[in-house]
Amino acid sequence: MFEATGVRDQAYRLQDARLLASASSRVIETAEGQLLILIEDDNGYAHPWITKAHYAGGWKARVVVPGMVNGLDPRVPGVEVKDSDGTKREAVLTDSPEIPLNTFRTPGGEGDKILDVFLALGVREPKTDNISFDALGGVTIVDESQATNATPPRELRAVDFYIAKSRATFAAQVTLIDASGTSGVIVDYGVKYDTSTLDREGTRTRFMQTAKFQPVRKPTLAERLFGDFQDEGEDRLHICTVFLLSPPNSTGEPDASWTAYVQNHVFWHLKHHAPNEVPAKQPDPIRFHSGLAGGLGDLVINQYLALNNDLSAQISAAVNNTTPEGQFCLQ
Amino acid sequence: MSSLNDLTQIAEGDYVEAAHIRLLAEQHIARKILPGSGVRVQTIPGHGTRIESDHQPAVFDHPWKGKKAGANATLMPGLVNTLMPWLADTKGPLRPMDGLTPEGEAHPKGVPSLALREDLFDAEGNSWIVVRAYRNETDGTLLKPQDGGLTLAQVAKRTWENGRSIDQEDVDGRHYGDEPLCLLRRPAAQKKGLGKLYQVSMFHKKHIFLPAAEKGATGSHLFYV
Fold first, then answer.
1. Angle of CA points A193, A194, A198, to nearest 5°
2. Which of A166, B6, B57, B64 is the right S-S partner for A201, CB 3.0 to 4.6 Å?
């Protein structure tokens, strides 16, 4: 006798036997069966810093091949691993740690263009209102959100990974001294050193996660001359961006139904070089005089001007030669 | 009834219909595994289906690519200022790291390997395979590899930082600089073993010596790509 429950149990087994895609494979349903294809990434060569994302109770990223900076792999602040003896410590990239993705941005808008590949897959630019004025002062507003799009909309999220290398930083220190007995002013132009970032973070490179990568802002010449600018004390390099794409017509935060794409920006091991180090002996400030010297006359003023021109050249050279910014280059 | 889910709703006492059997047959076909590119499928009746892959990652034999075998490491040939390091090992005397004679023939002692030491690890479990470049005392240029002027070594201490390698002196009074090629990493608590090898450098290099800016200070070696 053939029992109905036997048919049901067969159906359960068939459900369990279904093939699922994985990080290294793709399944295509055909009329003859399920076609399993293994995915080869980057022509099969896994380059340094190559990052992959997967979902395991939350989205996580992993640097598959650890990148090196000055011969050492970066540490991963905020991620812990356990050694074989049970002790916990901060992870480094050679541990191949799983890094939870805990901060996202929604690409689109100024300075964060959505890549064409995602537009083609159905991601839409953020809604903007097209406002125009006519000659009589009338206002016309066109709601762009009313535009039709045959492709079902999809959501996109992104997170950036970068490396940060601490270093010493410099700022100009301008001191004005009132020269007693004259109507002039003595100006001391010195350099102030700051190693607070270096003392706090150490020399080892850090592998960091952020919603949107921000490069270190470079000071203008005026800011450096007048000492208004406080350098951040580190150099940064954008390593990769992890994009998460939702299924069509999906809302909410990224979950297992979303698909991950990683855009890698760096493919080689690196060396970091900051051009200037804090000298053991603090250099003397450059001192020059400004203004009339008690009315002693042109001769004295001309002497001051000649000296000031010399000193101005020294200051200019000092500003040009004491840039704190470092560089990442190939190892 | 048109899906596998419908079949799972069948309860005890229901009639088995021809449609059920036909649907089961259709689903069997739909879930049959077919081999795609690089994949072999072997169905063993009564046991299951084995999936095997021919997939091999592409090989990229770049300069300085390291391979650890036991207590020795062999590196793919690399150049510094177009010169190839020479090293000696237990199998033979000083010879080029590509294992060829100057005439291009295979050296009778083969490709030299670097003997690794378990005691050359720092407190964090790091050790480095470096290319060691000896400089001419007069003009800072590289000494000849065949005189031991350019060779490989294993070190426990990083003498390179900020993109430059500190000028060091050996027991014979010769000055040299080290540039890392590979990192050996073992757990910090482990005091034995040679750990796992990671690549650090992948390019041929150029070298210049930078004398100290002040008298009494130490110069540095700049290795760059």
1. 135
2. A166
Question: Each residue of A61-72: pLDDT tens digit?
Answer: 999 899 999 999
Assess A63–B contact: CB distance below 8 Å, yes or no: no
Instruction: State how far residue A233 is from chain B, nearest Cα, in angstroms.
Output: 14
Query: Residue B4: which of A11, A83, A271 has the nearest Cβ?
Result: A11
Strand A129-133 relative to strand A234-245, pairing: unpaired
Question: In this complex, do A32 and B20 lie within 8 Å of one another by their Cβ atoms?
Answer: no
Contact A198, A233 (CB under 8 A): yes
Chain B residues with CB-CB distance to A68 below 8 A: 183, 198-200
Chain A contact set for B8 (CB, 8 A): 8, 11-12, 15
Residues 6+ apart with CB under 8 A from B17: none
The number of beta carbons lying within 10 Å of the beta carbon of residue A305 is 12
Element (H, E) at A65: none
Taking 90 as the threshold, does the pLDDT of residue A279 lie above it? no
Supply the ipTM of this predicted assembly: 0.75
Q: Which of A34, A70, A329 sits opposite B31 (nearest CB)?
A: A34
Q: Which residue has the tokens 């992890």?
A: A242
Confirm or reject contact between A84 and chain B (CB < 8 A).
yes
> Looking at chain A, which residue has its C-alpha nearest residue B61?
A45
Q: Which residues pair with A166 in a beta bridge?
A: A234
The pLDDT tens digits of the residues spanning A29-41 come to 655 666 666 665 5
Residue B154 in contact with residue B120, Cβ under 8 Å? Answer: yes
Give the number of other Cβ atoms within 10 Å of residue A37's Cβ: 16
Residue pairs between chains A and B whose CB atoms are closer than 8 Å: 156
Convert A88-97 to b/e letters by CB count within 10 Å (16 or more is b).
eeebbbbbeb
Q: What are the structure tokens assigned to B116, written together?
A: 């690794």
Q: By the 8 A CB rule, do A118 and A241 touch? A: no
Whole-prediction pTM: 0.74
Rounded Cα–Cα distance for residues A75 and A206 (Å): 5
CA B2 – CA A115 distance, rounded (Å): 40
